[in-house]
Every structure is written in C-alpha cells, then in structure tokens.
Amino acid sequence: MIFLNYDVSLPQPYLLFLGDTTEPGYAKTAFGLRDWAGERCVGEFACAGATVTTGLRAMTPAQAHAAGARALVIGVANAGGFIPATWLAALVEAMEAGLDIISGMHARLRDFDVLRDTADRLGRRLIDVRQPPAGIPVASGRRRGGRRLLTLGTDCALGKKYTALALTRAFTARGVDATFRATGQTGILIAGGGIPMDAVVADFAAGAAELLSPETAADHWDVIEGQGSLFHPAYAGVSLALLHGSQPDVIVVCHEPGRERVLGHPGYAVPDIGETIELALRLGARTNAGIRCAGVSLNTSKLDVAAARHVIAQTRERLGLPVADPLRGGEAFELLVDACLRTDT
User: Fold this and answer.
1) How far apart are CA 317 and CA 145, in angstroms?
2) Closest CA relative to residue 216, chosen from 169, 148, 165, 285
3) Interval 48-54 mean pLDDT
4) Fewer Cβ atoms within 10 A, N terminus or C terminus of the chain?
C-alpha cells in the first residue's frame, strides 16, 4: 500500500547523481534507491573528486538517456540540503542530454538561474520532492485507531529507513496489513509519497506526523520511517515531533556498531542504545502511555559475518531484547518481527 500526501508523477528510470561526495553517509538517497528501487536505476554519475559509489554502472547523462533513463536524481543528502555551485554544470549536462532533474534537497532547483533557464529552454522538468503538503494542522494529541511502529536512531544515516522498509515487507509476508510511511526524501522516492518532515515548519511537525499516520483499522500497522536522533545537536526536533505525533505503540531503535561520533558533528559522542531506548520511552509516553521497545536494529554492513553475529548476540545479551540486522535476515530478524507484532502487552 502506498500513502500519497501529494500527487507527483516522477519520470523514470533514474540516473543516480553522487555529486562530489566523499562521505558515504551523505549518499543515502542513492544507496536507498539502489537497494529498494533498483529496477528503476540504470546507473550512476558523479563529479570529479567523488569517492563514493553505489556500485552501479558509471554513465554520462547521454549514455544513461540512451539506456532508457528519463531523470537524474540527486542522490546526496548533505548537511543543510544545499546544492553546491560545483554541481551545476553536471545538472545542466543532464538536462541537455534529455533528462529531467529530481531533487530531495532543501535548496529549490528553480532558485538557480542556470538550472531554471536551461529547463525552460529545453522543456525539462525540475522536480523538488522535499515539499510538504499544504494545510498541515497543529497536532491534536488525540489517540487514533490502528497500530504504529516508529524507527528511532542513535544518530542519522544508520538504518532507520531500511529497518522500516524491511519490517513492512516482513509484516506483509506474514499476511499483516502494513504500510510504510515515508518521512524523508529517499523514502518518498521509494514509496511514491509521504511527508518530508524536515521541511515542515516546527510548530506543525507533530501535526504532520499525525497526518502521515491517520486513523486506520485496528489490525493495520503503519511502519513509520524515523528521522534524526533524539540526542542529535541539530536534528532532535524532528525526531521528537515524529515520536509525539505518530504516537507509536512500538519503537525499534537503530544503531551502527563502531560509530562513536555523531555524523557531521564530531564533537558529540553517539549515545548508548540503552540510553536512547530509555529517553524515547519516557518522551513517547507523553502521547502513548503504552509505548514499548520491541528491540534493536543493527547496521552491521561494515562487519564480516562472524563479527556481525558476535555484536548482535552481545547486544541482545546486554539489553535483554531481540537484536538483528534486517538486511542479514535470519532467525534473529524473525524474532525481532515477532516482538514487534506481539499484542499481549
């Protein structure tokens, strides 16, 4: 099931643009589309100096258009969501090759004279998906029907979206009526709709979370993509708004073993998983007194199989909760799914 907060027709397939990115964490849009919408991606394109790759075939815009691509997607989500001047020539090249441009950045494509003028001259579309719908209400705080799960993180860009997508898929495979609710630009591109929470005016952010996960049947699950971290020095606000507005019955906390400093803010340590669970439950109880933590999702992509199994087992023993890497699957993930769906508490 897809939830649309706005109706936008996205030209497909995509050429993924990596800019001049050297930090893999900032290329999460490109990686997300590769992993969850791979059939819509024909290749990747980068500027000089980029060191990040999705592993897809490197293509020029002209080659991608010849291979069927109809849009270049900016696959970067850098701090501040800005479009550097060093990218503009590449974006113009893409339009000249016949591609529309899709962006999830805070910066608006038509605010750049060269992009606007080129698009108007060639008849190309400039599509900004980081646009919230009109008429978002202030949060009511009222309880509503249905079941809700929210993924939270100890930091940004460590698996909240992947975990929500994997849980939605697992729920559906078990015959559970479930919907993935996208809250960021990558999730919106994957799902076809949602609300970009970090583009919503602060006073309306919890209301946006209510709008995103409306009244549903008692046995329906909304699996809501988390954003930021409650401990993040810059993005805690959007995390708290999601927590209060979505009123989750269940949370799953996401963490990357080995990450010690907050991404983009090295002066801040990544909080402990247990500390994150404790704070989330305390704050979440404000709008749902029955909130509980089902378990922990670990991003073990940088570990080999043996090391991943060890850290999963060690974390499970320390916290006394189901712990799994959803992308590795297996028995550990099935136990986490069991814990999420449990209704005896």
Assistant:
1) 34
2) 148
3) 95
4) C
Dist CA 290 CA 110 (whole Å) = 46
Q: Would 14-128 and 147-341 be classified into the same CATH topology?
A: yes
Alpha-carbon span 123 to 96, nearest angstrom: 10
Retrieve residue 110's tokens.
């038509």
- pLDDT tens by residue, 80-139: 788 999 999 999 999 999 999 999 998 999 999 999 999 999 999 999 998 898 999 999
> Structure tokens of 236?
């805690």
**Whole-prediction pTM:** 0.88
CA–CA dist 297, 289 (Å, integer): 23
Q: What is the pLDDT of residues 137-169, one digit of tens each?
A: 999 999 999 999 999 999 998 999 999 999 999
CATH 3.40.50.720 fits 14-128, yes or no: yes
Q: Cα–Cα distance between 104 and 189 in angstroms, integer?
A: 9
Strand-pairing partners, residue 71, are 14, 100
Chain-centroid distance, C-alpha 257:
19
Q: Is 292 helix (H, G, I), strand (E, B) or coil?
A: strand
Q: How confident is the model at residue 6 (pLDDT cuts 50, 70, 90)?
A: very low
- Give domain limits for the chain: 14-128, 147-341
Contact criterion met (CB below 8 Å) for 114 and 92: yes
Contact partners, residue 123, CB within 8 Å, separation at least 6: none
Is residue 77 a contact partner of residue 32, using CB atoms and an 8 Å limit? Answer: no
Token readout for 336 is 């986490």
CATH number of 147-341: 3.40.50.300
User: CA 27, CA 77: separation in Å to the nearest integer?
Assistant: 6
Place of tokens 């490109």: 30
Q: What pLDDT is recorded for position 107?
A: 92
Give the residues across from 178 on adjacent strands.
221
* DSSP β-ladder status, 261-262 and 265-269: antiparallel
Residue from 319, 308, 309 nearest 281 by CA: 319
